[in-house]
Specification:
The chain has 19 helices and no strands. It is mainly α. Mean pLDDT is about 85; it is low at about 5-10.
Protein backbone atom coordinates (compact mmCIF):
# COMPACT_ATOMS: atom_id res chain seq x y z
CA UNK A 1 0.00 0.00 0.00
CA UNK A 2 2.82 2.41 0.90
CA UNK A 3 4.59 1.64 -2.36
CA UNK A 4 1.35 2.28 -4.28
CA UNK A 5 0.94 5.63 -2.56
CA UNK A 6 4.50 6.60 -3.43
CA UNK A 7 3.94 5.75 -7.08
CA UNK A 8 0.71 7.75 -7.06
CA UNK A 9 2.31 10.92 -5.68
CA UNK A 10 5.34 10.50 -7.95
CA UNK A 11 2.94 10.34 -10.89
CA UNK A 12 1.16 13.58 -9.93
CA UNK A 13 3.93 15.62 -8.31
CA UNK A 14 4.70 19.08 -9.67
CA UNK A 15 7.91 19.54 -11.66
CA UNK A 16 9.64 22.64 -10.22
CA UNK A 17 12.57 22.42 -12.63
CA UNK A 18 11.90 25.83 -14.25
CA UNK A 19 11.90 27.53 -10.83
CA UNK A 20 15.08 25.72 -9.81
CA UNK A 21 17.00 26.33 -13.02
CA UNK A 22 16.04 29.89 -14.01
CA UNK A 23 16.50 32.93 -11.75
CA UNK A 24 14.51 35.16 -14.12
CA UNK A 25 11.64 32.72 -14.20
CA UNK A 26 11.60 32.71 -10.38
CA UNK A 27 11.40 36.51 -10.31
CA UNK A 28 8.63 36.62 -12.89
CA UNK A 29 6.79 33.84 -11.10
CA UNK A 30 6.86 35.71 -7.77
CA UNK A 31 5.90 38.98 -9.45
CA UNK A 32 2.95 37.27 -11.10
CA UNK A 33 1.67 35.97 -7.77
CA UNK A 34 1.74 39.45 -6.25
CA UNK A 35 0.21 41.39 -9.12
CA UNK A 36 -2.48 38.80 -9.90
CA UNK A 37 -3.61 38.97 -6.30
CA UNK A 38 -4.55 42.62 -6.70
CA UNK A 39 -5.82 42.30 -10.25
CA UNK A 40 -8.35 39.62 -9.35
CA UNK A 41 -9.65 41.79 -6.53
CA UNK A 42 -10.36 44.50 -9.10
CA UNK A 43 -12.01 41.92 -11.36
CA UNK A 44 -14.62 41.58 -8.60
CA UNK A 45 -14.71 45.28 -7.69
CA UNK A 46 -15.40 46.77 -11.13
CA UNK A 47 -18.56 44.77 -12.03
CA UNK A 48 -19.77 45.02 -8.44
CA UNK A 49 -19.40 48.80 -8.47
CA UNK A 50 -21.09 49.02 -11.89
CA UNK A 51 -23.99 46.90 -10.62
CA UNK A 52 -24.36 49.11 -7.55
CA UNK A 53 -24.30 52.29 -9.65
CA UNK A 54 -26.64 51.12 -12.43
CA UNK A 55 -28.41 47.86 -11.51
CA UNK A 56 -28.16 46.88 -15.18
CA UNK A 57 -27.05 43.59 -16.79
CA UNK A 58 -26.16 45.50 -19.93
CA UNK A 59 -24.05 48.12 -18.14
CA UNK A 60 -21.98 45.39 -16.49
CA UNK A 61 -21.56 43.49 -19.75
CA UNK A 62 -20.49 46.65 -21.58
CA UNK A 63 -17.45 46.91 -19.33
CA UNK A 64 -16.02 43.91 -21.15
CA UNK A 65 -17.12 45.26 -24.52
CA UNK A 66 -15.36 48.57 -23.87
CA UNK A 67 -12.14 46.65 -23.30
CA UNK A 68 -12.34 44.77 -26.59
CA UNK A 69 -10.91 47.27 -29.10
CA UNK A 70 -7.91 48.29 -26.89
CA UNK A 71 -7.17 44.61 -26.36
CA UNK A 72 -7.17 43.84 -30.08
CA UNK A 73 -5.08 46.85 -31.14
CA UNK A 74 -2.63 46.78 -28.24
CA UNK A 75 -2.35 43.01 -28.23
CA UNK A 76 -1.21 42.94 -31.85
CA UNK A 77 1.09 45.93 -31.43
CA UNK A 78 2.42 44.50 -28.17
CA UNK A 79 3.43 41.39 -30.08
CA UNK A 80 5.29 43.48 -32.67
CA UNK A 81 7.24 45.48 -30.10
CA UNK A 82 8.00 42.33 -28.08
CA UNK A 83 10.03 41.04 -31.05
CA UNK A 84 11.61 44.44 -31.79
CA UNK A 85 12.47 45.95 -28.37
CA UNK A 86 13.89 44.98 -24.98
CA UNK A 87 11.20 42.76 -23.46
CA UNK A 88 12.17 43.64 -19.88
CA UNK A 89 11.68 47.35 -20.54
CA UNK A 90 8.23 46.77 -22.02
CA UNK A 91 7.19 44.67 -19.01
CA UNK A 92 8.37 47.22 -16.42
CA UNK A 93 6.88 50.27 -18.15
CA UNK A 94 3.56 48.50 -18.61
CA UNK A 95 3.47 47.62 -14.93
CA UNK A 96 3.85 51.32 -14.11
CA UNK A 97 0.93 52.12 -16.38
CA UNK A 98 -1.25 49.52 -14.70
CA UNK A 99 -0.39 51.05 -11.32
CA UNK A 100 -1.76 54.38 -12.61
CA UNK A 101 -5.09 52.86 -13.67
CA UNK A 102 -5.60 51.28 -10.23
CA UNK A 103 -4.95 54.61 -8.54
CA UNK A 104 -7.42 56.33 -10.89
CA UNK A 105 -10.14 53.80 -10.03
CA UNK A 106 -9.42 54.27 -6.32
CA UNK A 107 -9.72 58.06 -6.55
CA UNK A 108 -12.98 57.79 -8.52
CA UNK A 109 -14.43 55.39 -5.94
CA UNK A 110 -13.65 57.88 -3.16
CA UNK A 111 -15.69 60.66 -4.81
CA UNK A 112 -19.13 61.48 -3.36
CA UNK A 113 -20.62 60.52 -6.73
CA UNK A 114 -18.33 58.05 -8.59
CA UNK A 115 -18.43 58.49 -12.34
CA UNK A 116 -19.58 55.53 -14.45
CA UNK A 117 -17.52 56.67 -17.45
CA UNK A 118 -14.32 56.31 -15.40
CA UNK A 119 -14.97 52.58 -15.01
CA UNK A 120 -15.31 52.20 -18.76
CA UNK A 121 -12.32 54.37 -19.62
CA UNK A 122 -9.96 52.93 -17.02
CA UNK A 123 -11.09 49.43 -17.91
CA UNK A 124 -10.20 50.12 -21.54
CA UNK A 125 -6.86 51.76 -20.66
CA UNK A 126 -5.77 49.01 -18.26
CA UNK A 127 -6.73 46.35 -20.79
CA UNK A 128 -4.73 48.14 -23.47
CA UNK A 129 -1.64 48.38 -21.25
CA UNK A 130 -1.96 44.79 -20.12
CA UNK A 131 -2.28 43.70 -23.74
CA UNK A 132 0.91 45.56 -24.63
CA UNK A 133 2.69 43.77 -21.79
CA UNK A 134 1.42 40.22 -22.20
CA UNK A 135 3.24 39.25 -25.44
CA UNK A 136 6.57 40.33 -23.94
CA UNK A 137 5.88 38.18 -20.88
CA UNK A 138 5.02 35.13 -22.98
CA UNK A 139 8.11 35.59 -25.15
CA UNK A 140 10.20 36.16 -22.01
CA UNK A 141 9.10 32.82 -20.55
CA UNK A 142 10.06 31.00 -23.72
CA UNK A 143 13.57 32.49 -23.62
CA UNK A 144 14.38 31.82 -19.97
CA UNK A 145 12.90 28.28 -19.70
CA UNK A 146 14.43 25.23 -21.37
CA UNK A 147 12.53 23.67 -24.28
CA UNK A 148 11.97 20.38 -22.48
CA UNK A 149 10.66 22.26 -19.41
CA UNK A 150 7.97 24.24 -21.25
CA UNK A 151 5.18 21.86 -20.24
CA UNK A 152 6.31 22.04 -16.59
CA UNK A 153 6.46 25.85 -16.82
CA UNK A 154 2.91 25.89 -18.21
CA UNK A 155 1.71 23.89 -15.19
CA UNK A 156 3.59 26.16 -12.75
CA UNK A 157 2.25 29.30 -14.40
CA UNK A 158 -1.28 27.94 -14.17
CA UNK A 159 -0.68 27.09 -10.51
CA UNK A 160 0.45 30.67 -9.87
CA UNK A 161 -2.57 32.07 -11.69
CA UNK A 162 -4.98 29.88 -9.77
CA UNK A 163 -3.49 30.77 -6.40
CA UNK A 164 -4.41 34.38 -7.01
CA UNK A 165 -7.71 33.51 -8.68
CA UNK A 166 -8.93 31.56 -5.64
CA UNK A 167 -7.79 33.74 -2.76
CA UNK A 168 -8.17 37.19 -4.34
CA UNK A 169 -11.80 37.03 -5.57
CA UNK A 170 -12.92 35.64 -2.21
CA UNK A 171 -11.11 38.48 -0.47
CA UNK A 172 -12.39 40.91 -3.08
CA UNK A 173 -15.96 39.88 -2.44
CA UNK A 174 -15.52 40.52 1.27
CA UNK A 175 -13.71 43.81 0.70
CA UNK A 176 -16.23 45.36 -1.68
CA UNK A 177 -19.21 44.38 0.48
CA UNK A 178 -17.65 45.45 3.78
CA UNK A 179 -14.84 47.99 3.28
CA UNK A 180 -15.89 49.32 -0.13
CA UNK A 181 -14.46 49.30 -3.63
CA UNK A 182 -11.97 52.09 -2.93
CA UNK A 183 -10.09 49.83 -0.51
CA UNK A 184 -10.07 47.05 -3.12
CA UNK A 185 -8.58 49.36 -5.76
CA UNK A 186 -6.03 50.66 -3.27
CA UNK A 187 -4.87 47.14 -2.46
CA UNK A 188 -4.54 46.47 -6.20
CA UNK A 189 -2.24 49.50 -6.50
CA UNK A 190 -0.05 48.24 -3.65
CA UNK A 191 0.41 44.89 -5.36
CA UNK A 192 1.71 46.61 -8.48
CA UNK A 193 4.32 48.40 -6.35
CA UNK A 194 5.48 45.07 -4.91
CA UNK A 195 5.59 43.51 -8.35
CA UNK A 196 7.74 46.32 -9.73
CA UNK A 197 10.43 45.66 -7.10
CA UNK A 198 10.86 42.13 -8.46
CA UNK A 199 10.51 43.00 -12.14
CA UNK A 200 13.28 45.58 -11.83
CA UNK A 201 15.73 42.74 -11.02
CA UNK A 202 15.14 40.60 -14.10
CA UNK A 203 17.82 40.71 -16.77
CA UNK A 204 17.52 42.65 -19.96
CA UNK A 205 16.44 40.69 -23.04
CA UNK A 206 17.24 42.85 -26.07
CA UNK A 207 15.97 41.77 -29.50
CA UNK A 208 18.12 39.89 -31.99
CA UNK A 209 20.38 42.02 -34.15
CA UNK A 210 18.37 41.16 -37.25
CA UNK A 211 14.98 41.58 -35.53
CA UNK A 212 12.29 43.17 -37.68
CA UNK A 213 11.27 46.64 -36.45
CA UNK A 214 7.76 47.01 -35.09
CA UNK A 215 5.61 47.83 -38.10
CA UNK A 216 2.49 46.84 -39.96
CA UNK A 217 4.67 44.68 -42.17
CA UNK A 218 6.04 42.72 -39.22
CA UNK A 219 2.51 42.25 -37.89
CA UNK A 220 1.39 40.87 -41.23
CA UNK A 221 4.36 38.50 -41.21
CA UNK A 222 3.25 37.11 -37.85
CA UNK A 223 -0.37 36.74 -38.99
CA UNK A 224 0.73 34.91 -42.14
CA UNK A 225 2.78 32.48 -40.09
CA UNK A 226 -0.16 31.77 -37.79
CA UNK A 227 -2.66 31.35 -40.63
CA UNK A 228 -0.24 29.02 -42.42
CA UNK A 229 -0.29 26.63 -39.47
CA UNK A 230 -3.67 24.99 -39.04
CA UNK A 231 -2.62 23.48 -35.72
CA UNK A 232 -2.03 26.96 -34.24
CA UNK A 233 -5.28 28.25 -35.72
CA UNK A 234 -7.04 25.38 -34.00
CA UNK A 235 -5.78 26.50 -30.58
CA UNK A 236 -7.04 30.04 -31.22
CA UNK A 237 -10.42 29.20 -32.74
CA UNK A 238 -11.41 26.49 -30.24
CA UNK A 239 -10.56 28.68 -27.27
CA UNK A 240 -12.42 31.68 -28.72
CA UNK A 241 -15.51 29.58 -29.37
CA UNK A 242 -15.40 28.15 -25.85
CA UNK A 243 -15.10 31.58 -24.24
CA UNK A 244 -17.59 33.45 -26.45
CA UNK A 245 -20.35 30.91 -25.86
CA UNK A 246 -19.73 29.83 -22.26
CA UNK A 247 -17.96 32.66 -20.40
CA UNK A 248 -20.53 34.17 -18.01
CA UNK A 249 -18.75 35.90 -15.12
CA UNK A 250 -20.73 39.11 -15.82
CA UNK A 251 -23.78 37.22 -14.51
CA UNK A 252 -22.26 36.39 -11.15
CA UNK A 253 -23.40 39.51 -9.20
CA UNK A 254 -26.99 38.89 -10.37
CA UNK A 255 -26.83 35.11 -9.93
CA UNK A 256 -25.66 35.52 -6.33
CA UNK A 257 -28.66 37.74 -5.60
CA UNK A 258 -31.11 35.36 -7.29
CA UNK A 259 -29.76 32.41 -5.29
CA UNK A 260 -30.14 34.52 -2.11
CA UNK A 261 -26.43 34.27 -1.39
CA UNK A 262 -24.93 37.73 -2.05
CA UNK A 263 -22.19 36.98 0.49
CA UNK A 264 -21.02 34.16 -1.78
CA UNK A 265 -20.21 36.47 -4.69
CA UNK A 266 -16.47 36.08 -4.19
CA UNK A 267 -16.89 32.30 -4.03
CA UNK A 268 -18.57 32.30 -7.44
CA UNK A 269 -15.59 34.14 -8.90
CA UNK A 270 -13.19 31.76 -7.15
CA UNK A 271 -14.97 28.53 -8.09
CA UNK A 272 -13.41 28.17 -11.53
CA UNK A 273 -9.97 28.83 -10.10
CA UNK A 274 -10.49 26.19 -7.41
CA UNK A 275 -11.10 23.59 -10.08
CA UNK A 276 -8.21 24.94 -12.12
CA UNK A 277 -5.92 24.74 -9.08
CA UNK A 278 -6.79 21.08 -8.59
CA UNK A 279 -6.03 20.49 -12.26
CA UNK A 280 -2.68 22.27 -11.84
CA UNK A 281 -1.68 20.42 -8.68
CA UNK A 282 -2.36 17.11 -10.41
CA UNK A 283 -1.08 18.38 -13.75
CA UNK A 284 2.21 16.49 -13.92
CA UNK A 285 0.45 13.97 -16.19
CA UNK A 286 0.07 16.71 -18.81
CA UNK A 287 3.81 16.58 -19.55
CA UNK A 288 3.32 12.98 -20.71
CA UNK A 289 0.52 13.88 -23.15
CA UNK A 290 1.63 14.43 -26.75
CA UNK A 291 -1.73 14.75 -28.55
CA UNK A 292 -2.22 18.32 -27.39
CA UNK A 293 -4.76 19.29 -30.06
CA UNK A 294 -7.16 16.50 -29.16
CA UNK A 295 -6.65 17.35 -25.50
CA UNK A 296 -7.71 20.97 -26.12
CA UNK A 297 -10.86 19.85 -27.95
CA UNK A 298 -11.95 17.45 -25.21
CA UNK A 299 -11.20 19.93 -22.41
CA UNK A 300 -13.03 22.82 -24.13
CA UNK A 301 -16.12 20.66 -24.69
CA UNK A 302 -16.11 19.63 -21.01
CA UNK A 303 -15.86 23.32 -20.03
CA UNK A 304 -19.05 24.10 -21.96
CA UNK A 305 -20.87 21.08 -20.57
CA UNK A 306 -20.07 22.09 -16.99
CA UNK A 307 -21.34 25.64 -17.57
CA UNK A 308 -24.57 24.25 -19.02
CA UNK A 309 -25.02 22.06 -15.94
CA UNK A 310 -24.64 25.14 -13.71
CA UNK A 311 -27.87 26.48 -15.22
CA UNK A 312 -29.74 23.51 -13.71
CA UNK A 313 -28.17 23.72 -10.25
CA UNK A 314 -30.82 24.54 -7.58
CA UNK A 315 -28.50 26.22 -5.07
CA UNK A 316 -25.28 28.20 -4.81
CA UNK A 317 -23.16 25.23 -3.76
CA UNK A 318 -23.98 23.13 -6.81
CA UNK A 319 -23.33 26.15 -9.03
CA UNK A 320 -19.90 26.46 -7.39
CA UNK A 321 -19.19 22.75 -8.04
CA UNK A 322 -20.15 23.10 -11.71
CA UNK A 323 -17.99 26.20 -12.11
CA UNK A 324 -15.09 24.38 -10.44
CA UNK A 325 -15.42 21.54 -12.95
CA UNK A 326 -15.50 24.11 -15.76
CA UNK A 327 -12.38 25.77 -14.41
CA UNK A 328 -10.51 22.47 -14.25
CA UNK A 329 -11.35 21.70 -17.88
CA UNK A 330 -10.36 25.19 -19.01
CA UNK A 331 -7.03 24.94 -17.21
CA UNK A 332 -6.18 21.63 -18.90
CA UNK A 333 -6.95 23.25 -22.24
CA UNK A 334 -4.71 26.19 -21.35
CA UNK A 335 -1.79 23.94 -20.38
CA UNK A 336 -1.93 22.10 -23.69
CA UNK A 337 -2.26 25.30 -25.72
CA UNK A 338 0.66 26.98 -23.94
CA UNK A 339 2.85 23.91 -24.42
CA UNK A 340 2.09 23.83 -28.14
CA UNK A 341 2.91 27.53 -28.53
CA UNK A 342 6.18 27.52 -26.62
CA UNK A 343 7.46 24.27 -28.13
CA UNK A 344 6.75 25.05 -31.78
CA UNK A 345 6.97 28.82 -32.42
CA UNK A 346 10.41 30.31 -33.31
CA UNK A 347 11.75 32.84 -30.81
CA UNK A 348 11.93 35.66 -33.38
CA UNK A 349 8.17 35.31 -33.94
CA UNK A 350 7.16 34.48 -30.38
CA UNK A 351 6.13 38.01 -29.43
CA UNK A 352 3.93 38.56 -32.47
CA UNK A 353 2.31 35.16 -32.10
CA UNK A 354 1.76 35.86 -28.39
CA UNK A 355 -0.16 38.97 -29.49
CA UNK A 356 -2.37 36.80 -31.67
CA UNK A 357 -2.79 34.31 -28.83
CA UNK A 358 -3.90 37.16 -26.61
CA UNK A 359 -6.72 37.90 -29.03
CA UNK A 360 -7.98 34.34 -28.66
CA UNK A 361 -7.85 33.93 -24.89
CA UNK A 362 -8.66 37.55 -23.95
CA UNK A 363 -11.20 38.63 -26.57
CA UNK A 364 -13.22 35.46 -26.04
CA UNK A 365 -14.05 36.21 -22.36
CA UNK A 366 -14.83 39.85 -23.16
CA UNK A 367 -17.22 38.95 -25.97
CA UNK A 368 -18.55 36.08 -23.88
CA UNK A 369 -19.50 38.37 -21.02
CA UNK A 370 -21.20 40.74 -23.45
CA UNK A 371 -23.03 37.75 -25.00
CA UNK A 372 -24.09 36.40 -21.62
CA UNK A 373 -25.45 39.81 -20.56
CA UNK A 374 -27.49 40.21 -23.75
CA UNK A 375 -28.91 36.68 -23.44
CA UNK A 376 -29.71 37.30 -19.78
CA UNK A 377 -31.70 40.38 -20.79
CA UNK A 378 -33.76 38.10 -23.06
CA UNK A 379 -34.26 35.07 -20.83
CA UNK A 380 -32.53 35.54 -17.49
CA UNK A 381 -29.21 34.40 -16.01
CA UNK A 382 -30.00 30.67 -16.04
CA UNK A 383 -31.13 30.73 -19.66
CA UNK A 384 -27.89 32.51 -20.60
CA UNK A 385 -25.77 29.94 -18.75
CA UNK A 386 -27.51 26.89 -20.19
CA UNK A 387 -27.80 28.04 -23.79
CA UNK A 388 -24.24 29.36 -23.82
CA UNK A 389 -22.81 26.11 -22.49
CA UNK A 390 -24.62 24.00 -25.07
CA UNK A 391 -23.59 26.33 -27.91
CA UNK A 392 -19.99 26.01 -26.69
CA UNK A 393 -20.04 22.21 -26.87
CA UNK A 394 -21.49 22.26 -30.38
CA UNK A 395 -19.04 24.87 -31.68
CA UNK A 396 -15.98 23.10 -30.22
CA UNK A 397 -16.93 19.71 -31.66
CA UNK A 398 -17.61 21.30 -35.06
CA UNK A 399 -14.21 23.00 -35.10
CA UNK A 400 -12.50 19.77 -34.08
CA UNK A 401 -14.09 18.01 -37.03
CA UNK A 402 -13.19 20.85 -39.42
CA UNK A 403 -9.50 21.00 -38.38
CA UNK A 404 -8.04 17.48 -38.69
CA UNK A 405 -4.39 18.68 -38.55
CA UNK A 406 -5.11 20.27 -35.17
CA UNK A 407 -6.98 17.23 -33.90
CA UNK A 408 -4.12 14.92 -34.94
CA UNK A 409 -1.27 17.08 -33.64
CA UNK A 410 1.45 15.01 -31.92
CA UNK A 411 4.48 16.70 -30.33
CA UNK A 412 6.61 13.60 -30.96
CA UNK A 413 6.26 13.84 -34.74
CA UNK A 414 5.24 17.44 -35.53
CA UNK A 415 7.82 19.08 -37.78
CA UNK A 416 7.65 22.46 -36.03
CA UNK A 417 8.08 20.95 -32.56
CA UNK A 418 11.07 18.87 -33.68
CA UNK A 419 12.69 21.80 -35.51
CA UNK A 420 12.36 24.15 -32.54
CA UNK A 421 13.69 21.52 -30.14
CA UNK A 422 16.78 20.99 -32.32
CA UNK A 423 17.28 24.73 -32.61
CA UNK A 424 17.12 25.29 -28.86
CA UNK A 425 19.59 22.45 -28.26
CA UNK A 426 22.09 24.01 -30.68
CA UNK A 427 21.66 27.44 -29.08
CA UNK A 428 22.45 26.11 -25.59
CA UNK A 429 25.54 24.13 -26.58
CA UNK A 430 28.84 25.68 -25.39
CA UNK A 431 30.95 27.24 -28.12
Amino acid sequence: MLDLARRFFRHFRIDVGPLRDSRDYRLMFASGIITMFGTFISVVAVPYQMKELTGSYLAVGLVSLAEFVPMVVCGLWGGAIADALDRRKIIVLSELGLLFTSLALMVNAMLPSPQIWVLYVMGAVSTGIGSLQRPSMEAFFQQVVKHEQQAAAAVLSSLRWNFGAIVAPALGGLLVTSAGVAVAYGLDALTFLGSLVLLWRIRSLPPAEDAAPASLRSLVEGVRYAVGRRDLMGTYLVDMAAMVFAMSTALFPFLADQLRAPQALGLLYSAGAIGALIASLTGAWAARVHRHGLGVIIAAALWGAAVALAALAPNIWLVVVCMALAGAADMVSGIFRSTMWNQTIPSELRGRLAGIELLSYASGPMLGNARSSLMANLGGARFSLGAGGLLCVGAVLALGAALPSFRRYDARTDEHALAEKARRQVATQPT
